[in-house]
Write a structure and sequence with these properties.
The termini are far apart. This protein is an alpha+beta fold. It folds into four domains: 63 residues, no CATH class; 75 residues, GMP Synthetase, Chain A, domain 3; 57 residues, no CATH class; 37 residues, no CATH class. Helix 1 crosses helix 2. The strands form three sheets. A five-stranded antiparallel beta sheet has the order 2-1-4-3-5, with no helix packed on it. The chain is built from seven helices and twelve strands. The longest helix is centred in the N-terminal third of the chain and has 27 residues.
């Protein structure tokens, strides 16, 4: 049986072969990831894949025990001091980066820091200092602001839990055009941006449908005729397939696109 696992807090799901462990969603398991022993959470089971690729999928070592969970708790306690030390070193070296989180591998041999930066950062000296300090392999992993928001969680202006936390497995790109086709671009960046400061994920959910509907609609400013009178399209109501038109005398009227000539 193939399952999706969550290993690192800022990465997506990874497929593993569950063997005969009889796993359910939410179970904790022990795996090998990036040559390190790690603990992971089962997110989804019975994943359908191509038969020829099954041999390439790594296998789960075993289900996590109560002793394993104690190790995870102790590692979590160590992380508080580890991340403080790293942030202090970042400030001392005046590096333009923000340390978001730290992950200590289950086996304790590797420390992975996640960070955000606006541009490329030369952190080679930082890695050397951290390696000397903790006597472990150190890796720095750059993430985006959307990944940070997903890890921290929260609620959108809609009152619901963030989509990236609640159900989105991946973080698809959302572009300004997605907002424009839904006639939301004029609302200002603060109205169409999420907690991460990027365009809201939900803007991409219906953008494709709007694009299809717009194919049958005229552009704003197009000259048309309604009941034999000349007018200009001033507004679009995409979902209802209606437009607002303005006549030469200044009067406006909302009509369906079937009435346009």
């Amino acid at each position: 049986m193939i399952v999706n696992l969550k290993i690192f807090p800022w990465n997506g799901s990874v497929m593993y072969d569950s063997g005969n462990w009889g796993l359910e969603a939410g179970d904790m398991v022990i795996v090998i990831a990036d040559s390190e022993t790690e603990i992971a959470t089962v997110e989804e089971i019975n994943i359908e894949i191509k038969t020829e690729t099954k041999e390439e999928i790594p296998k789960i070592i075993r289900k996590a025990t109560s002793v394993d969970l104690e190790v995870v708790e102790k590692n979590g306690q160590k992380c508080a001091e580890i991340i403080k030390t790293c942030r202090d070193l970042v400030r001392e070296n005046k590096l333009p980066m923000k340390i978001v989180d730290v992950h200590l591998s289950f086996g304790g041999g590797k420390i992975t820091f996640s960070f955000i930066a606006e541009s490329r950062v030369d952190f080679r000296e930082l890695v050397k200092s951290l390696s000397r300090n903790f006597q472990r392999s150190v890796r720095l992993h750059q993430i985006g602001s959307r990944d940070e928001a997903r890890k921290r969680g929260g609620f959108g202006v809609c009152g619901c839990q963030l989509c990236c936390v609640k159900f989105l497995k991946d973080l698809p790109s959302v572009i300004t055009e997605d907002a424009r086709v839904q006639q939301m671009g004029h609302r200002g960046s603060e109205r169409i941006s999420g907690l991460c400061g990027r365009l809201k994920c939900c803007l991409g959910f219906e953008a494709g449908q709007y694009r299809e509907l717009l194919k049958s609609m005229p552009n704003i400013g197009k000259a048309v005729k309604v009941d034999g009178k000349k007018c200009v399209v001033t507004e679009l109501d995409t979902l209802s397939q209606k437009v607002t038109i303005k006549f030469d005398d200044g009067n406006k009227k909302k009509v369906s696109i079937e009435e346009l000539k």
